[in-house]
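Budget justification aside, the reviewers requested a transparent look at the raw inputs and outputs of the sequence design task funded under Objective 1. We therefore reproduce one unedited record. The lines immediately below are the structure tokens for a 249-residue chain.
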């Protein structure tokens, strides 16, 4: 797979130039899930990770109020370059995503322009999702958006990708993950990239060993960001204290 050929500028322009209805719905879930968790836990700054960050900054933005460090873990050299270019002062298109998060007081308290905080706590690490095996229980909150199903056509690799993400989280860590439903693959610039055909049942099965209480929810938004998939799925919950807990619906 020629991940070096991934075109982050074209990808951002197509997907994140404007705030799509799907992303607005996801941001609502993120801000409520993370906000409620830390309101109840009352725990002070933690470490966060966004696995397979790609050219998407809003998962990192969603973790920012509670983190003193956030790792953007990404394989593609082109995406790593894009992410590093955004650290000191990210592009103005991301302001609309931050504004959506600021409907929750935890985000709003950081001010209208959180770029200085972003530059201080966010770092980029180049690495393969499967290399996370050496980082078990490392991070206290985490996100993984459109990654495990967007790198392979094999269900075994999809499940292993989800496992690697979940095992990188400490027990009790809040998490959120998003998946393209029944994706047929996607373009980034001129190049086509593969996808694994998954639905709600596959997402749930991939998480149930590693998550305690969690929800799997298909987005209500009907508009398609791109062709070749039937919808989007978001899963959110908490890393279990063991790897044998069955989820609570």
């Amino acid at each position: 797979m020629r991940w070096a050929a991934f075109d982050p500028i074209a990808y951002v322009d197509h997907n994140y130039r404007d705030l799509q209805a799907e992303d607005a719905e996801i941001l609502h879930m993120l801000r409520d899930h993370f906000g409620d968790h830390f309101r109840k836990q009352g725990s002070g700054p933690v470490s966060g990770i966004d696995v397979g960050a790609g050219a998407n900054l809003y998962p990192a933005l969603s973790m920012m109020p509670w983190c003193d460090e956030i790792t953007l873990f990404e394989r593609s050299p082109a995406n790593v370059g894009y992410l590093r270019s955004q650290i000191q002062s990210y592009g103005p298109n991301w302001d609309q995503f931050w504004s959506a998060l600021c409907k929750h007081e935890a985000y709003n308290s950081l001010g209208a322009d959180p770029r200085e905080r972003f530059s201080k706590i966010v770092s980029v690490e180049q690495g393969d999702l499967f290399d996370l095996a050496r980082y078990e229980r490392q991070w206290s909150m985490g996100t993984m958006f459109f990654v495990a199903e967007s790198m392979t056509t094999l269900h075994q690799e999809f499940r292993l990708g989800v496992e690697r993400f979940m095992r990188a989280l400490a027990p009790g860590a809040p998490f959120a993950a998003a998946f393209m439903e029944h994706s047929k693959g996607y373009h980034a610039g001129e190049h086509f990239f593969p996808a694994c055909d998954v639905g709600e049942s596959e997402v749930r099965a991939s998480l149930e060993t590693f998550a305690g209480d969690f929800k799997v929810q298909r987005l209500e938004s009907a508009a398609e960001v791109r062709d070749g998939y039937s919808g989007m799925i978001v899963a959110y919950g908490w890393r279990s204290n063991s790897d044998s807990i069955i989820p609570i619906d």
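The mean pLDDT is 87. The two ends are 37 Å apart (CA to CA). Computational costs for records of this kind are itemized in the attached budget.
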